[in-house]
Amino acid sequence: MTNDSYSSKIDIRARERALKILYEKFYDVLKDVSEGRPPKLVIKKRTLGNTIYDAERKLLLLGDATFERSLLDLREARKFMQTLLMAGIIYEALSNGEYPTIRDLYYRGKHTIRYRKLPTKSIGEENTWEEQAESDSVLRDIEVFSNVLREEMLILSKEKGKVVGDLKIRSGDDIIDLSKMGHGAYSIEPTPDLIDFVEVNAELVLVIEKDAVFQQLHRIGFWKKYRAILITSAGQPDRATRRFVRRLNEELGLPVYVISDSDPYGYYIYSVFKTGSITLSYESERLATPHARFLGVMMTDIFGSTKLGKKPYLTEEERRNFIIRAKERDIKRARELKEYPWFKSERWQIELNEFLDRKVKLEIEALAGKGLKFLADKYVPEKIEVGDWIE
Amino acid sequence: MAVVEESFKSISPAEFFYKNKEIAGFSNPARALYQTIRELVENSLDATENHGILPTVKVSIRELDVVPEGAYYEVVVEDNGVGIPPKYVPQAFAQLLFSSKYVLRQSRGMFGLGAKMAVLYAQITTGYPAEVIVAPIKSKHIYSFKLKIDIRENKPVILNFTTTSNILGKHGTTVRLITLGDWARSKQRIYEYIKRTAIIAPYAEILFRDPDSNYLLFERTIDKLPPPARETLPHPHGVDIETMKSILKSLADRPILESLVESFQGIGVMTAQRILAEAGIKQEKKSGELTDPEVEALVRVMRSFKDIKPPRADHLSYLGEEIIVAGLKKAFEPEFATAITRKPSVFEGHAFIVEVGIAYGGKVPVVEKPLVLRYANKIPLLYDEGSDVVFKVLDEKKGIDFKVYEIEFPSPLVILTHICSTKIPYRGVGKEAVADIPEIEEEVESALREALRELRSYILKKRKELEEIEKAVAIAKYIPEIANSLSKMYKVDPQEISVKLLELLNSRLKSFKIPSLSSVVV
């Protein structure tokens, strides 16, 4: 382990744990081969059919259905090879004290297999994998198979999420004060589990889908005024941001409010924070924040609701200026959302029906456009105060 | 129908044949050279294999003098056959004859008629006599003749006759003609004929020397001969008025009852009595005294008479599956060849046997439509194939669908068909196509389907094996990757893991084993 002397102790411990688990999990393959049995891996299926919504825990979880990936099965042989190839690369990277990204893993494993086609003996060429989608896919299989997430194997990804607030953390061997980031913000590291919360002085977490709106709220000091930890996922949240939010909620007991665009894609981003995503359902247990609250932007914020006794935040004229006509794919997506079990609550059905009736959408920026002060000092605090969120 | 001379009795047809030479295939110098080769080669094969002798036939064509119509060629055909008895040689080669009695026998040639035409044509075009050298089996002498035909009198003229001692104990017949021909225009046809003949007669050794001094040797690849063709009497169902009249004329003094019993197969005294009763003819009546209406009635009753055995087929000379396969293998070195010889069947009172061979792969040319080699009584049929019964069976729209047999064209497929019978129902005078008689068509189709089913099984088996090989390679190529990964994780010897994985893979394969990883992974 060449870089040991400069690596943090937390990383070293994480490496040792991941190495041990991988060694044990793949040992059966070696045993099968030594004892003359066809080697195989039994892996949980990562399909929509094997994605289960646990209504009680409000989580999207991976079901128990499994499949066998055997070398001697022609349909699975290539994937079997790729899985072993990936396991070997990760194992080696962990042993060497490295921090590969998923792109690195892709390049490290990619090479050409040259073989003779029989009976013609003409030379065939095949790449171990063609696109990163292939190597990413087997990485997910290894996560599911070994029950170790990529962060725990010290595989890095691009940092996307940002955070500011009155919070001190330990990252590696350093203490960082997230209230002293100037105009910038702290990038949530790809291994948020290796962060320690040192000191907290906040009452709530506000997650903003849009980076630009996050910056605006940061610059006018929203987080100081309302004792908030301000986070942006800059679009679809990455795993680190989700895990970080989950830990704030779970370990510090802070309520989490999410603000996204008012359209099916925005609503789904919220649901990813809350219940997990379909493609990564095996991580929900660790990444999802079941108590996250959807603060807005709601359809009923735009149009009001007689049923809920709610007045609109926008005037007739503002609506005319700010709302955008929904596209065909937005409508199709909304219909899909309506059928997901975790959108089946009465409150969500009201929002989705309103969307499908009006066939319009609204971006968060439009609220900032009405006035940043409106957003920071009226819309957000008022909705939190009166409890106008969806659980 | 072949006409066999029993007692030799000459009429005067030489002039007639000369004037109508195109009927016999001698219409121009190119056709004549081809026809001459054909007639002589077919006589040679009949003179050998019908008598249990493995044929060795030497054919030579040399150009002598160029003339405006073509050139004079010396044609020599030599065989190791039984050898014609010297006393018959003049008539056999220089007198056109009709027979006195009708019997039937499957044969290639027209019983010497063709050879006589060749002699006649040579004599007329070049003026040279025919030279015939014969050595019958066990003959102490070799007899040489120089013969001409007296066309007007239809009599053989012996110009020269010599006898030499047969020291080497040879037997066979050699015919040497100097004839007008056109090699350039008949070359392709003659080569095709020789090659096709060699395919169907792998038991023959054939040496061919062409006028350009090219030698072509077809070696014998099988020592088995087809059963010899034997003579048989006509069957009542196949008789026609002309044949009947000839028979009655030759037996004019005999009672009609006796004539029927003697001249036809399947007719005993009882049956003859019933036939005559039905035709309203007194059984004692002399054969020569039947009136035309009586002959017509007799033929009508005989042709449709039910209570009679079907024609015998044991006199037919079929090739058999072994010889056909040997011929196809010799010519095409295919990866698969099979043949079907059907049981005898009957059309219009004539027994016939259909045989089909197919060869697939190897050196068989890849073709858009199956390559078809047609034969009738072991003679290759080279032309007019579109109107042949075989092509009706192969018709693209209504005929056999090859996809059913897993064959998608272009494909390396050759089909050989052989029809043997005492009467081949040719279409037209060219004798290059067999008419689509329903009974024959049905047999050709059944034989072909039977052979194609065997091919299909072979193709499916091979495909399965190929699939297994592909599967084995698809998996084996990953073995080094897996061994490497396991060695990274567990510090094991990758070589050892590879060997174990290959063993494991091989143990699951049925038709194929990968000898070593290095034979797959480069």
Give the strand line-up of the largest sheet of chain A. Answer: 10-7-13-12-14-15
| Helix proportion of chain A | 40-55%
Strand % of chain B is: 15-25%
Strand order, largest beta sheet of chain B: 7-6-5-8-3-2-9-10
The greatest interface here is: A-B, 37 and 32 residues
Task: Provide the structure class of chain A.
Answer: alpha+beta
Q: What does this protein look like?
A:
The complex is a heterodimer of chains A (391) and B (522). Chain A is α+β, with helices and mostly antiparallel strands. Chain A is built from 15 helices and 17 strands. Chain A folds into 2 domains: 9-153, Winged helix-like DNA-binding domain superfamily/Winged helix DNA-binding domain (Arc Repressor Mutant, subunit A); 162-386, 3-Layer(aba) Sandwich (Dna Topoisomerase Vi A Subunit, Chain: A, domain 2). Chain A has helices at 9-34, 74-95, 102-109, 132-146, 211-219, 222-225, 239-252, 264-274, 284-287, 299-303, 316-322, 328-339, 346-358, 364-370, 372-386; strands at residues 40-44, 51-54, 59-62, 66-70, 112-117, 122-127, 162-164, 167-171, 174-177, 186-187, 195-200, 204-208, 228-232, 256-259, 293-296, 324-325, 360-361. A 6-stranded mixed beta sheet of chain A has the order 10-7-13-12-14-15, sandwiched between helices. In chain A, strands 9-8-11 form a 3-stranded antiparallel beta sheet, with no helix packed on it. In chain A, strands 1-4 form a two-stranded antiparallel sheet. In chain A, β5 (112-117) and β6 (122-127) form a beta hairpin. The model of chain A has no long low-confidence stretch (mean pLDDT 91). The longest helix of chain B is centred in the C-terminal third of the chain and has 39 residues, at 438-476. Chain B has 4 domains: 9-218, 2-Layer Sandwich (Heat Shock Protein 90); 236-304, Helicase, Ruva Protein, domain 3 (Orthogonal Bundle), CATH 1.10.8; 321-457, Ribosomal Protein S5, domain 2 (2-Layer Sandwich); 477-519, no CATH class. Chain B has 14 helices and 16 strands. The radius of gyration of chain B is 29 Å and the shape is globular. Chain B is α+β, with helices and mostly antiparallel strands. At the A-B interface, α1, α2, β5 and β6 of A face α12, α13 and α14 of B.
